[in-house]
From TrEMBL:
It is a multi-pass membrane protein. The chain crosses the membrane at residues 27-45, 57-76, 82-107, 119-138, 144-167, 179-198, 204-225, 246-271, 283-301, 313-332, 344-364, 385-402, 422-442. The keyword Transmembrane applies. This is MFS transporter. PROSITE patterns: MFS (PS50850). It holds the Pfam family MFS_1. InterPro entries: MFS, MFS_dom, MFS_trans_sf. The keyword Glycosyltransferase does not apply. GO terms for cellular component: plasma membrane. Residues 1-446 form the Major facilitator superfamily (MFS) profile domain. One of its GO terms (molecular function) is transmembrane transporter activity. GO terms for biological process: response to antibiotic.
Length: 464
């Protein structure tokens, strides 16, 4: 529900603009107002889960998200919708930040954890693709308001189920990590950083706005790191990054998502603007990726990770993603979905279904029960930063190349396709870099090096 909400709005933007009177320049903030708090609060929310209990934080986040969804659906003007989307982003961050941490704590045995992370990865990655399909269907059939209203019953059922099924936990206590200054520094840095990245689409990378805000965000982040190195009760214990597998997996994930995210955004534009698909057919067009991700994440990936180790599964996954993006980089202006698009989408889905569970396993490989929330929040933060950065860079390059081709006399379809091709190829290069880094840096943990949480008894209620 939370991940889906990042994309379900995209296909409804024209209807929202017409209904509420958004200007063209402000319409993008229907998406950005959600992304900025979502990306900025993941780290803080994850640490709060460690300190006061992940179940409490999870249910609180669901409550905020559900209430904000209702407000989004009843919005009558742009200000109310943007404010509600901002609060919705807060709820999404608070909820999703602790989810992976709960998964590795509830499933301590390696085989069971691999299966659980596979389900987690499938739900997370499929949410984006399903959002495109659900957004088109709801908008065309009963109106854009229902892309928000649909969250309300789901959120209520999820909160009630979590309250009954999840084991209660006290957390380590605020005294173990109540670093207020650190919290202010990292939240300000991340929110400002995400804001700066998403604004580059309109302002450009070399503008005074981008350079000045980016410099402030970087300074805040460096100040946060310095604070954590000296604080007696740090918000983010730097020991989390001592493992090369953990720090490497998080950086590799950001690169992979930066390249992969171009598919979700630019392939949709190619299907609609070049091949002429409507919203529902566009959602159906990218649905095979979700099917492939599901088949791998829920079936082969957990078994392969348990048998061969996450690194061995990750490398071919990254190679398949790069191959799929490279194939999309060759789609012609007069292309066919069955001949030119579908053969590229299948390796993308298979590769992501292999790579994402493997990266999640590596990123959480050194997490203890006291640190699993912050590790989960950090993993999700790197994903959001990678997505925002990749979308901003690749869409900017695609637009610039399209304008250049139009200036050279190319027709609209050829110019648009040329811009998308360039973005797909650069996305493939980013994934190739992540593959090279994974080959050089990562190692599958030996059984004796399994994280301490694997020895933690399963809570009595976990059987539910």
């Amino acid at each position: 529900m939370v991940i889906l909400d990042g994309t379900i709005v995209s296909v409804a933007l024209p209807s929202i603009q017409h209904s509420l009177g958004f200007s063209s320049s402000s319409l993008a903030w229907v998406v950005n107002a959600y992304l900025v708090p979502f990306g900025g609060l993941l780290l803080l929310a994850g640490r709060l889960g460690d300190l006061i209990g992940r179940k409490r934080v999870f249910i609180a986040g669901l409550g905020i998200f559900t209430a904000a969804s209702l407000l989004c659906g009843v919005s009558q003007d742009p200000v109310m919708l943007l404010a509600s989307r901002f609060v919705q982003g807060i709820g999404g961050a608070v909820t999703s930040a602790v989810t992976l941490g709960m998964v590795v704590t509830l499933f301590p045995q390696p085989k069971e954890r691999a299966k659980a992370i596979g389900v987690y990865s499938f739900v997370q990655s499929a949410g984006g693709s399903l959002g495109l399909l659900a957004g088109g269907a709801l908008t065309q059939s009963i109106g854009w308001h229902w892309i928000f209203f649909v969250n309300v019953p789901i959120g209520i059922v999820a909160a009630l189920s979590a309250g009954r099924m999840l084991a209660s936990e006290q957390g380590v206590g605020l005294g173990k990590g109540s670093d207020v200054l650190g919290a202010l520094l990292v939240t300000s840095a991340l929110m400002l950083g995400v804001y700066t990245i998403v604004e580059t689409t309109d302002r450009g990378w070399a503008s005074a706005h981008t350079l000045s805000f980016g410099a402030v965000a970087l300074a805040l982040l460096l100040a946060f790191v310095a604070r954590q190195a000296k604080a007696t009760r740090p918000l983010l214990p730097l020991r989390v990054f001592r493992s090369l597998n953990v720090s490497g997996a998080m950086g590799i994930q950001a690169l992979m998502v930066a390249g992969m995210f171009s598919f979700q955004f630019l392939c949709v534009l190619y299907l609609q603007k070049v091949l002429g698909f409507d919203e529902i057919h566009t959602g159906l067009g990218v649905f095979p990726v979700s099917v492939a991700i599901g088949a791998l994440s829920l079936g082969l990936s957990p078994k392969a990770i348990a048998r061969f180790g996450p690194r061995t599964v990750l490398l071919p996954g990254l190679a398949l993603i790069a191959a799929g993006l490279g194939a999309l980089g060759r789609v012609p202006a007069g292309g066919s979905y069955a001949v030119d698009v579908l053969p590229a989408l299948l390796p993308l889905g298979i590769g992501f279904g292999l790579a994402m569970p493997a990266l999640a396993t590596l990123a959480m490989s050194a997490a203890t029960p006291e640190d699993s929330g912050i590790a989960s929040g950090m993993f999700n933060t790197m994903q959001q930063i990678g997505a925002a950065f990749g979308l901003a860079v690749l869409s900017t390059l695609a637009d610039a190349h399209t304008e250049a081709l139009l200036g050279d006399g190319a027709d609209t379809a050829s110019a648009l396709t040329g811009g998308y091709q360039l973005a797909f190829r650069i996305g493939a290069c980013l994934v190739v870099v992540s593959l090279l880094l994974a080959t050089a840096l990562l190692r599958s943990p030996a059984p004796a090096q399994r994280p301490a949480v694997e020895e933690t008894p399963v809570p009595e209620n976990a059987a539910h």
